[in-house]
Amino acid sequence: MQFSFPAVAMLAALAMYGGTGEQMAYTYWCVEKGYARFTGPVDQSEAWVSRAKGWIKVMQTDVLLTLGLLTCATIPFYMLGAGVLYRLNQQPDGLETISVLSNMYTTTLGEWAYWLFIVGAFFVLYSTSVSGLGAGVRTFADGMAVMGVIERNDYKTRVKIRRWWSVISPLATAMTYLYFQNPVWMLTLGHLFGAIKFPLIAGGTIYLRYRHLDKQIQPSKTTDAVLWICFISMVVLMGYILYLSYFA
User: Fold this and answer.
1) CB of 161 within 8 A of CB of 150?
2) CB atoms within 10 A of CB 122
């Protein structure tokens, strides 16, 4: 036994890593749920500091619970794939992806589990598409403002861009799927770009932490250390992706 696996396996693992979360989407969710609004305008009072730290604690708890739930849901899915699909010599690919994945449940539970899997897969994929679209249109509109295409404070124009992009984006995605008809390849490629994006998000977080965060609510040294460790790890992973893509 040795620590060795093909490069394509590493790319698949990194793609999985790139699809595990949407950091930018979560920030929009927090804003629209009113976390910052409930905290109130920034001032030097102890009440504001208490409210701000309280809502930060809410976000930390939310993230930890999500991490636990995702881990508990993902590990059994991988174990089923390795234990069932590997023995059947089946690999999800092309238009047969859903039917192949359903074998993990029909083989272990019986044929009746097929429709249970289909219903569950529909709700999971539908909710993922809707939430991803909601995040994508907001990121796109804000990106236009950051790049100077529209005025930063022009909220009406930003709303119009969101509405138009919420129609154009799913149509473009659907047309791409109909052309390639290979969801596994599309997800792998898309999530690889997501993994490359993570270091930029972590770097932006570090910039905001040291340049714009109020000193009254600065994190602990342990939190800072974890943040830097995550940033460095992401940079190393991004470099490894680029190495495998262009030099290996």
Assistant:
1) yes
2) 11
- What are the domain boundaries of the chain? 110-180
Cβ neighbours, 10 Å, residue 33: 12
State the Cα–Cα distance between residues 186 and 177, nearest whole angstrom.
8
Q: Is 93 helix (H, G, I), strand (E, B) or coil?
A: coil
CB 244 within 8 A of CB 10: yes
How many other CB atoms are there within 10 angstroms of residue 201's CB atom?
Answer: 16
Could you tell me the two tokens for 12?
């698949």
Q: Give residue 206's pLDDT.
A: 93
pTM for this entry: 0.75
Tell me how far apart the alpha carbons of residues 173 and 176 are, in angstroms, rounded to a whole number. 5
pLDDT tens across 25-55, in order?
A: 888 888 888 888 888 888 888 899 999 999 9
Q: How far apart are CA 37 and CA 29, in angstroms?
A: 13
Note the pLDDT of residue 181. 83
Reported as a single tens digit per residue, the pLDDT across 164-190 is 999 999 999 889 888 888 888 888 888
CA distances from 87 to 61, 80, 110 (A): 39, 10, 17
Q: Up-side HSE of residue 58: CA atoms within 13 Å toward CB? A: 14
pLDDT for position 224: 92
